[in-house]
Amino acid sequence: VEAVLCAGLAIWFGLSVLKQFRYGPAVKLIKRLDRAYVLPDWRLFSPEPARSDYRILYRDIGVDGTLTAWREISIRNRSALRPLWNPERRIRKGVRVSISALVRHTMAAGRFQTRLLLEIPYILLLNFVEGQPRDFRAIKRQFIIAETDGMGSDGQPRLIFLSAFHVLPEA
Predict the structure, then answer these.
(1) How does pLDDT run across 33-45, given as a tens digit for each residue?
(2) Are 136 and 60 contacting, i.e. CB atoms less than 8 angstroms apart?
(3) Which of 47, 49, 61, 132 is deepest in the core (most CB within 10 A)?
(4) What is the pTM of this model?
(5) CA 142: distance to chain centroid?
(6) Rounded Cα distance, 107 and 74, in Å
(7) Minimal CA–CA distance to 57: which of 38, 35, 75?
């Protein structure tokens, strides 16, 4: 029993290491066969490792014009069942990709461009933010993307992107 367990863990570790690479026939096969997402995808061997995290925060304007406090949207799934049941995985992935695209466009231009309002990443993020819980008196919503220095950092977040206020759809 012990030998079978050790062999299973060694195979899992080896496949996990192989999955970190982007190219090659073995990598494609592993990714295609890993339907349950039991193998982690950390990009440990990435040419550009992640050095910061992005956060999405939003606030509302009420009918009387008062602003709510900024609220952070958690896009992490901390459930113990995540390896087995993770239906929100694709939503979180879409949000992360949209944030990266919006940040990349904003940084490249050095400022926000109004044409980004019609780009798919902006529209996807706006839809995601508008779907968050709200007070019944809220009529408009604004969101920001802030950057922090990564996990465990005590540094202040840096404002990367600030949206305009958008009228909320009728509840």
Answers:
(1) 877 667 776 655 5
(2) no
(3) 61
(4) 0.63
(5) 18
(6) 24
(7) 75
